[in-house]
Amino acid sequence: MEQKTVVMGMSGGVDSSVGAYLLKKQGYHVIGITMQIWQKKEGVYEKEEGGCCGLSAVEDARRVADELGIPFYVMNFRKEFQTTVIDYFIEEYQKGCTPNPCIACNRYVKWEALLQRSLSLGADFIATGHYARIEQLSNGRFAIRKSVTEQKDQTYALYNLTQEQLAHTLMPVGGYTKEEIRSIAEEIGLLVAKKRDSQEICFIPDHDYAAFIKENTDTKILPGNFVSTDGTILGRHKGIIYYTIGQRKGLNLSLGKPVFVTEIRPQTNEVVIGTGEEVFGDTLYADRLNFMSVPDLEEEVEVVAKIRYSHKGALCRIKKVGKDQIVCKFYEPQRAITPGQAVVFYQGDYVMGGGTILR
């Protein structure tokens, strides 16, 4: 049988490192690739441990590839990362939304750009160290299945992949727990066996989103009014980029009771403040839909929906209300349904599809 070639996206972390080892063990010709996506100021996002874009990550990946005896290259994806991730992130915040840049990066950089470049070089597949599994269903479609470990499951961030992308993707660590992956790394003597996971957005390691946006846009960030749901002015805010739905800290409002951000209105530059109860809602609308386990949504159906990465998921009913719009009604109200975040629909262990929350 002809040996298949797979390009392994190597971040310098333990998951992709062990993933490359597992694929080689399975008989693939493995090529390690680290995606160079940090921007003009060399190493500006580097930190001591190195995130997935830091200079130290490249060196860790290079050393692992050397240990495994596989070829290793660094590919420049700065342009794609700037336009599809950073520019998108800034634009969404300025619209009063809270985007998930990792989902955009997965779809347009880690898959669209890397896959096309890899296929053009003669590879059969790309692979990543995500905790998820890819299976072809009885209807012929490819779908993402939850990993064996709920704690590390990363399917939420992968709902936007296309059938073409899934058909050419391998996810070798999805059948293992994190502990098992670290154990394999130690057994084979990988230097990254105990390297800690990167938790933050790679291009904003200090978590100061507002400062990053101000630094990277010519648009003036204007202060405005905090208002109650009935329109009463409660105080002044610093600019809508500083706030997200459900936020309580940093409001600097003394109203004699705990209050939260319940809505952001970019048209009027207002941030709506309400009670804890008003942060909950049972209905959302989403667009920019991508269906995975089914070609499209034919009729109203019951699914489990996740409205953020850390959300456990909740039962709801979804139906199409336009060519590219869906309404989702939860049986029980959910906290902080946030425009700009993804909503991902599951049937059992499989990703049915998802979209971007409109309201």
Give a description of the structure.
The protein has about 350 residues and is an alpha/beta fold. It has seven helices and 17 strands. The protein has helices spanning about 15-25, 55-70, 80-95, 100-120, 165, 180-185, 210-215; strands at about 5-10, 30-35, 70-75, 125, 130-135, 140-145, 170, 225-230, 235, 260-265, 270-275, 280-290, 300-305, 315-320, 325-335, 340-345, 350-355. The strands form four sheets. The chain has a six-stranded antiparallel beta barrel. A five-stranded parallel β-sheet has the order 3-2-1-4-7, with helices on both faces. A four-stranded mixed β-sheet has the order 9-8-11-10, with no helix packed on it.
What separation lies between the terminal Cα atoms?
52 Å
Oligomer: single chain
Report the helical percentage.
10-25%
The radius of gyration computed from the alpha-carbon positions, rounded to a whole number of angstroms, is 22 Å
Q: List the total number of helices.
A: 7
| Proportion of residues in extended strands | 25-35%
Largest sheet: 6 strands, antiparallel, barrel
What secondary-structure arrangement, pairings included, does this model have?
Blueprint: E1 5-9, H1 14-25, E2 29-36, H2 55-68, E3 72-76, H3 78-94, H4 101-120, E4 125-127, E5 132-136, E6 142-146, H5 163-167, E7 169-170, H6 178-187, H7 209-215, E8 224-228, E9 233-237, E10 260-265, E11 270-274, E12 280-291, E13 301-306, E14 314-322, E15 325-335, E16 342-347, E17 350-357
Parallel strand pairs: 1-2, 1-4, 2-3, 4-7, 8-11
Antiparallel strand pairs: 5-6, 8-9, 10-11, 12-15, 12-17, 13-14, 13-16, 14-15, 16-17
